[in-house]
Write a structure and sequence with these properties.
- The complex is a heterodimer of chains A (about 575) and B (about 170).
- Chain A has about 575 residues and is an alpha/beta fold.
- By secondary structure, chain B is α+β, with helices and mostly antiparallel strands.
- Chain B has a single domain (about 20-160), classed as Sandwich (Immunoglobulin-like), CATH 2.60.40.
- Chain B contains 3 helices and 10 strands, in the order H-E-E-H-H-E-E-E-E-E-E-E-E.
- The chains are: A alpha/beta (about 575), B alpha+beta (about 170).
- The interface of A and B includes residues 430 and 511 of A.
Chain lengths: ~575, ~170
């Protein structure tokens, strides 16, 4: 693929926030030459999902907001997104941030991310401001998402995290390796793992389970204070609040989670009043809608650096609360973006900020040799098993979207075909890379969609009414009008069953017109054979990656029927684009 | 065709009928660990066991049966409950209040088959601070009622009980 440096330089318009007002920053020399601003630079990555190598990742064409969230970031896609953030159509940024003409743009601008490329950019942006003036923070989902990370329980990523120079992180999928593996990773991690919202259960506390602070029951250090640019900056960690609900509880039996904004408020007040910090940053894995609500309730936080929902939002959203204003960001996923938060910190207060969410264009950045060496060395023992082509992508294969993606359709087809069921369910994960049409698919690609610690497939008998209850339940996790009741994933994917969805309805009334592939309506009392994977209950079937690989190798003709989700009441909602 | 035509709404009820509402443990910080049996004995020593109140299906009927009056919402009643329960069988719910002269604190779950979950008598001079874990069959409003100075004050929060979602 030719490197067209000129295209990047002339078309890139990284939207920034300066003094609260958005403007377009254009740099003459390079996309990555940033004007100096303030006295402290905080770099933020999140949800890289262990993608050590550069990837294609298509942003969603459906990311609906309901209630007060409708039409507001992050619930904008396609052209509405470009308009809102002043990004030029047909530019490198339009490619990085939206789904518009994805395949064409992917050919033109290439892959994004990759830790060797990220390392080069991080080092450059840190050396630009000089020693003692920067921090690198990671918002979690750093150690999961590839076959390599899964087989090594995240250990591979600890080395990469150390070499990248991460000063502090929080977590989500990191917890799904279980306490023992997590603690062993944390022992080798040179940064700090922060989580104010993880506590021992009463039983674990009674049994003297290990905790950072036995008095409060906090399992991990909640916050850290770093001196940068001559000022004291507090960083608080907020782990994903719903780990034991969204994942099997057996991985974290001794720990309870939750949003816990009252405990957070006490922590912020203590840092402000007792520790006399000059700025407070919340490193959050709540998801953007939850962070926006939290910012309206908790006072004293200057900036929430957010993740989890994989929203690449070019500008911070300013939220007013009784104590002032809190800025809320979300920095995308899969290593595509590096956020740069430049702060002008005075005594006890942040005077001004500038924020940029920089796409990591791998073709513009020289890979860092040390990181490249580490990646090659870590991959070597395993990659050999996974590099053989098992099929070719018959079409653009992507996952991200509220209701469906071609990659998950493929997984559902594999489940139905290999496990011989009428219906298949596949979780609405937001990670997983994109494959271009014609691209060879390897086991490594399959694992990038499926690498979890509970990959076992199952075949179950469910009644029509049980199936509908599951759909309603998951749909409410996505579209409850109160963000605190959302979990941040997408809708469960269905194979063999079409339905209509009215997101603005209440739970129990969103899903209708459930119809089987043969055109007959799903009957409430009738039983159906359903295949699935990644159940929160323990299962014993073959791992889903083997099922998918077997299906791909079988050479069965691809099922290209439409995903079969009809949306109702979404006319005029800028969270949906006709762009394919 | 709509799914309710096929009888979808009926199944929730069937699930509910199998679930009893039982307060498992009273972990009141003012009491220390107090087994359920003791709570009942304690209540009985001060008053008759409110058998009728524990039979009512709706929270309004249960409150009326227990107290003979209605409660008004008050921001002085501070309830701590999760937005989404990690386990519907043991949902931690606690309450504190700055109201004076508290004589009892009751917990109700609107959608449980029997709404009243537990009612604690608070002797004079006791800190009004009760924590317990309650069983919930499905997503529901949880209501805490504080009796103080002969009047009733309440706080309400929805707690979601979910089959489990999918992380981002």
């Amino acid at each position: 693929m030719p490197i067209r440096r000129r295209e990047f330089l002339t078309l890139a318009g990284a939207a920034t926030l300066a003094g609260g007002l958005p403007r377009l920053a254009r740099s003459a020399d390079s996309v990555y030459d940033l004007e100096r601003f303030g006295n402290a630079r905080i770099l933020h990555i999140t949800d890289t999902h262990a993608q050590l190598k550069p990837v294609f990742f298509r942003e969603p064409s459906v990311n609906l907001g309901v209630g007060s969230m409708q039409g507001n970031p992050p619930h904008l896609v396609g052209k509405a997104f470009l308009d809102r953030f002043g990004i030029r159509p047909d530019s490198a940024d339009a490619y990085a941030f939206t789904c518009i003409e994805f395949e064409k743009a992917a050919q033109r601008f290439g892959k994004l991310g990759g830790f060797a490329h990220l390392k080069t950019l991080v080092d450059r942006l840190r050396s630009d401001v000089g020693a003692g003036r920067s921090l690198l923070l990671d918002g979690g989902d750093l150690w999961q998402g590839t076959g390599l990370a899964n087989v090594m329980k995240g250990a591979d990523m600890v080395d990469a995290s150390n070499l990248l120079g991460i000063d502090a992180m929080t977590g989500h999928w990191e917890f799904t390796y279980g306490e023992k593996a997590l603690r062993s990773n944390l022992e080798r991690f040179k940064g700090e793992f922060l989580a104010q919202n993880v506590f021992l259960t009463e039983e674990a506390a009674f049994n003297d389970a290990k905790a950072f602070d036995p008095a409060s029951g906090r399992v991990f250090k909640p916050s850290t204070i770093k001196e940068i640019g001559g000022r004291r900056v507090a960083v608080i960690g907020q782990a994903f609040p719903y780990v034991p609900i969204a994942h099997p509880k057996r991985f974290t039996p001794d720990w309870k989670f939750g949003i816990r904004d009252e405990e957070l408020q006490k922590l912020v007040d203590g840092l402000r009043n007792t520790d006399k910090v000059d700025a407070v940053i919340l490193l959050s894995h709540n998801g953007m809608d939850v962070d926006l609500k939290l910012a309206s309730r908790v006072t004293g936080i200057d900036v929430i650096l957010g993740g989890h929902t994989h929203d690449a939002v070019p500008q911070p959203i300013a939220v007013t609360n009784p104590g002032g204003v809190t800025l809320v960001t979300n920095a995308g996923s899969n290593g595509k973006f590096l956020a740069v938060l430049d702060l002008d910190i005075g005594k006890g207060k942040v005077a001004n900020v500038r924020y940029r969410l920089l796409p990591v264009f791998s073709e513009l950045l020289k890979p860092d040799p040390a990181m490249q060496g580490l990646i090659d060395k870590t991959r070597a023992p395993h990659a050999g098993d996974w590099v053989d082509k098992i099929a070719s992508a018959d079409r653009l294969l992507y996952r991200r979207g509220n209701f469906s993606g071609s990659m998950d359709q493929l997984i559902c087809d594999a489940l139905r075909s290999e496990l011989d069921t009428e219906i298949a369910l596949s979780p609405g994960f937001r990670w997983g890379t994109t494959a271009l049409a014609g691209q060879p698919l390897t086991m490594e690609d399959v694992l990038a969609q499926t690498a979890v610690t509970y990959p076992e497939t199952y075949v179950a008998t469910m009644t029509g009414s049980q199936i509908k209850d599951v759909l309603e339940d998951v749909c409410d996790n996505l579209f409850n009008t109160d963000p605190y009741y959302q979990q941040g994933g997408d809708m469960v994917r269905l194979g063999g069953l079409a339905y209509a969805c009215t997101p603005a309805e209440s739970v129990g009334k969103r899903i209708s017109e459930l119809t089987l592939d043969n055109g007959s309506p799903l009957q409430a009392a009738k039983s159906y054979k359903v295949a699935g994977w990644a159940s929160v209950n323990e299962q014993t079937g073959a791992p889903v990656w083997d099922v998918v690989a077997k299906h791909l190798k079988s050479g069965k003709p691809p099922n290209r029927s439409a995903p079969g989700v009809t949306l109702k009441g979404v006319e005029g909602n800028p969270g949906i684009s006709k762009q394919v | 065709m709509t799914n309710t035509d096929n009888g979808f709404s009926a199944t929730r009820r069937l699930i509910l009928q199998g679930a009893g509402a039982v307060a498992l443990v009273g972990l009141g910080s003012s009491f220390g660990n107090l087994p359920f049996g003791l709570t009942r004995a304690f209540a009985a020593a001060n008053d008759k066991y409110p058998e009728e109140a524990f039979k009512q299906k709706s929270e309004a009927d249960a409150i009326k049966s227990l107290y003979g009056k209605t409660a008004e919402a008050s921001d002085k009643v501070k309830m701590d409950a999760p937005e989404i329960a990690e386990n519907g069988a043991v949902v931690p719910v606690s309450v504190t209040t700055t109201l004076a002269d508290v004589t009892s604190i009751s917990f109700l779950v609107a959608e449980n088959p029997v709404a009243l979950v537990a009612s604690y008598k608070i002797p004079a001079g006791t800190m009004p601070n009760v924590a317990n874990r309650i069983k919930m069959a499905k997503t529901s409003n949880v209501i805490v009622v504080v009796e103080a100075g002969g009047k009733l004050y309440s706080a309400t929060k929805e707690v979601k009980v979910t089959v489990g979602g999918c992380g981002g």
